[in-house]
Amino acid sequence: MKLSLASPSAARHARGFTLIELLVGTVVSSIVVLGVASAFVGINASYQSESKIKVAVENSRNAQVYLERTVHMAGYGIDPRYAFDFSTGSLGTSYGGLKDNFPATPTTFATDDLAFRYRDPSYMRRGIITSSGNKISLDTAASFGVSLRTGQVMVVACANGGEYVVVKTTEPKAATEREIATTPYSTPFSSSVPNCTTNGANTPDAAFVFLLYELRLRVKLYDNKPYLVAFNSFDNPDTADFVVIAAGVENFQVAYVMNRPLPAPDAPSGVTVPDSSTNSNWIIPDVSGEGLPDPGADAPLYATPNLDPPRYSKHPANIRAVRVTMVVRNSSTLANLKYPRTDIENQAKFGADDGYFRTVISTTISTPNMKSRAFFVPAVGDIASGLNIGGG
Predict the structure, then answer these.
(1) What is the pLDDT of residue 185?
(2) Which of 143, 279, 348, 376 has the largest count of CB atoms under 10 Å?
(3) Got the DSSP string for 56-114?
(4) Confidence (pLDDT) at 11
(5) φ, ψ dihedrals at 111, nearest 5°
(6) DSSP state, 223?
């Protein structure tokens, strides 16, 4: 029998890897794994940071969409004189005045107050109200159709649209009900109940019944975190009757674009600018000292000619657009990134950087229902007296 011997090279490979070869392979593998892990950690950190930044951008977009949808409705179906509200006496001491930081302890949050009314364009019922304004009764074939909360504002207007009364509900009611207890709203509306709204049930002379919405927008704090919220009434916002619009809104600033006449030589006579003479851009208040629209100024009525001075006064009925600027931040700090504050005053209080990403958004929303040049359908208002609940 003939034997064959393996070559020295084959014998060496049959023994496997040497210790040095194993160590070299382990080091190389470790370097590769560490490189992959480091890249993964970096990508994940970048993803987390971008996700937090995306939250701020999405919140700002949510706030903008809501504002453009609701503020655009301001003045719909009501007298433009009462569309916006600038009374802050019921806000409570913890909220301070307009443009003040709150609460008393310094914080990074500041808010203006944006309060407005509009009538529900898709809601109308027929019925009557008692002479004291303490109960609305719909026609027997009707029901409210929507659930009503305590404090819901309702308008009861004569069939010919000449007179009306504004009331608040004093109890909740289910959508299937047809009667509800109320009380006259009073200021700024008249508390008297017109005779034409108290009779004519189940006839063509029955009064119109409308829903009137009130929204008060401002920043509210929870656990020292800011949220833009909309209160469902003009009452003290310490109540829980509100909806959250967007998180992270730490600065909410509002200015009003007023009705502006044509320049000379077509400008009407006797008109003075409502803002500072050194800043006559017809936007208030966009500089210090200009104040807010003034309900005590000359008010335009439905019958006021278009070129008369009351059409260009500082009265809220002359608001033609609302300009809103917001600073929106992400929900938590970013450990490896620093972003400068946008508020110079707060930089001095809290330092220039705090780890939050912030985005600034500004939008101008038109208020077409404030022009009071035509009646709504159904016609509600009195051309002869110049008063107009319809607005628009």
Answers:
(1) 92
(2) 376
(3) HHHHHHHHHHHHHHHGGGTTTTS-GGGSEE---TTS-GGG-STT-B-SSS--S-EE--E
(4) 55
(5) -145, 140
(6) T
Distances (CA, A) of 100 to 103, 218, 224, 230, 252: 9, 12, 16, 18, 11
Q: Which positions ≥6 away from 145 have C-beta within 8 Å?
A: 123, 125, 175
At 223, the pLDDT band (50, 70, 90 cuts) reads confident
The Cα 174–Cα 178 span in angstroms is: 9
Residue 263 burial (10 A CB sphere; 0-12, 13-18, 19+): exposed
Distance of alpha carbon 189 from its chain centroid, rounded?
Answer: 24
* Closest by Cα among 230, 226, 229 to 329: 226
Q: Cβ contacts of residue 146 below 8 Å, gap of 6+? A: 123, 175, 211
Which residue in this structure is represented by tokens 């049930």? 201
The vertex-136 CA angle with 132 and 137, nearest 5°, equals 125
Tokens (6 digits) for 28: 């190389």
Tens-place pLDDT, residues 75-90: 988 888 899 998 865 5
- Residue 16's SS3 state is coil
The first and second tokens of residue 153, run together, are 């504002």
pLDDT in tens, 303-350: 788 888 999 999 999 999 999 998 888 776 665 554 444 444 444 444
Question: CA triplet 18, 23, 25: central angle to 5 degrees?
Answer: 95
